[in-house]
Amino acid sequence: xxxxxxxxxxxxxxxxxxxxxxxxxxxxxxxxxxxxxxxxxxxxxxxxxxxxxxxxxxxxxxxxxxxxxxxxxxxxxxxxxxxxxxxxxxxxxxxxxxxxxxxxxxxxxxxxxxxxxxxxxxxxxxxxxxxxxxxxxxxxxxxxxxxxxxxxxxxxxxxxxxxxxxxxxxxxxxxxxxxxxxxxxxxxxxxxxxxxxxxxxxxxxxxxxxxxxxxxxxxxxxxxxxxxxxxxxxxxxxxxxxxxxxxxxxxxxxxxxxxxxxxxxxxxxxxxxxxxxxxxxxxxxxxxxxxxxxxxxxxxxxxxxxxxxxxxxxxxxxxxxxxxxxxxxxxxxxxxxxxxxxxxxxxxxxxxxxxxxxxxxxxxxxxxxxxxxxxxxxxxxxxxxxxxxxxxxxxxxxxxxxxxxxxxxxxxxxxxxxxxxxxxxxxxxxxxxxxxxxxxxxxxxxxxxxxxxxxxxxxxxxxxxxxxxxxxxxxxxxxxxxxxxxxxxxxxxxxxxxxxxxxxxxxxxxxxxxxxxxxxxxxxxxxxxxxxxxxxxxxxxxxxxxxxxxxxxxxxxxxxxxxxxxxxxxxxxxxxxxxxxxxxxxxxxxxxxxxxxxxxxxxxxxxxxxxxxxxxxxxxxxxxxxxxxxxxxxxxxxxxxxxxxxxxxxxxxxxxxxxxxxxxxxxxxxxxxxxxxxxxxxxxxxxxxxxxxxxxxxxxxxxxxxxxxxxxxxxxxxxxxxxxxx
Length: 726
What we know:
By secondary structure, the chain is an alpha/beta fold.
């Protein structure tokens, strides 16, 4: 008889074995193992993980280990097809049922399902809830129900789907089948609604945080948005795949056409296009490299393309939830990516107008106003954007991230109290009947037939604002509207009116500091992430091999009519370049290569690597120092903690390795530490204030900074300043 301890040990090892042999990863990340254990034991779970955090494994692994078929509720056809295609590459028996299949194909899938021939079946909620399909489920052993994109259940969410409300009947009809609901986007209100609507009162909640540390956030002011977008793409993302979001269908069409006229590959996507065109453009985006999709928010929720290198917004999203989810479509592979946006006063006016003119009830409007206010406040931030974004979702980040525009290029503020009073007074004295541009003309003392006809050239506020130019005044008005000192009267064609909040400011009872706007191009350029090099190679021989590996992947993908990333992710190819494996065993050690992919593609990739063996010093598979290995992983986009876990080293050891790279100029200290230039300068000031009688000793600086910074961070800084030999 097997002991209980032995049984538990065997059970505990089987998820890890499945992860290693099927999916090709050495170990679980974050909370994955705990979630899988909960579901394997028959318990319900609500999982909140950031995009790219590995949510799918949380139900795919237990579905493979529990008896029966895992049924996955997925809201979009593209998402089903993408995930099923990837699973088939791994040797998993997976299928989907949706309207893209003809009658015969649907019957074949159902027959396999009834015969127990499927590990996972993906289905849309509207099909799942039909009596016919529920009767089908009654005849099959079900391993689990996975409800993907669970935030669709929330009536307050931006992706609300009424069919999700009825999914609670799964528990009523199949009470012994575990359920796992998953989402990357849910604030406290939405989490509560997911639990209530899906009947997950007994579920264990797993929240692994919302930080997408590989994404750099940057927000600038609109001047010439299409030109700004083009400059951003050409500067940072030439040849990369990306998504550009616009608010209107017309703007989508115009922007896509304009980008094409500038030599870029761009396609439009919006609900006004026929289903055939939408499907064709989406398919091209998945299959082709370096394609840009210009879209309304109708595009993206079902897209699992891992190597989207940027998401750009030419119009302001309606909420931080929408912004987080849309920007989260960049960098799913964990490599550096950009979330770039430009906005202006007209965005504020347009979105507020959409809220006020909608047919929603007052409660819903109040919620939408709150969400929009949070979005506007996020745009006008002078502090770390990532900290604020995470705080909105109930998460925390102890220190500024060092990877957003405000950290990389700290915002200056100015005392705008007097300017704000002039602006508010001019709005009031002109009758609260005009928009910002007209009031700015009055402040600047610009005469026109309209101004003279209304007698506004005789107002006491006429010409009192000549110390600022029209761009600076527009910045003042934008921030006054954003902060609630002015409101826009939609029934009066966008006229500005004073809000009750303006009274203390007008009476001199309040001071006001506003952000000093810089030119967007300058801000974006100075905020460039030095870790962009993580997606390129400094050695041209490495770059040549990487491109050759991508070419082979492209060929294999074309042969099977699947997207290239379904074969292998960019990160896997990059690690091949770094490691130069010579054998199947060495290749199998690379994360992302499981037994099935090793069997299918191992020989082809190894042969190509051997062809390039003589192009690099030391030959293929040359032993590299442990410090070089850490540097290689860092250039792949892994952080210090991730490298330490991967290599089973202490973080302090990894910092020492990276400090060596800093010392010889291979890395920048700010790149390693994630500190802004200002923060590093402040640390430098503290260091210079200390007695210099103990050169090379880090402890006095550590203590002077009250332990706020890791020894490894301080080591890298001191090495870069020449104050410490490494």
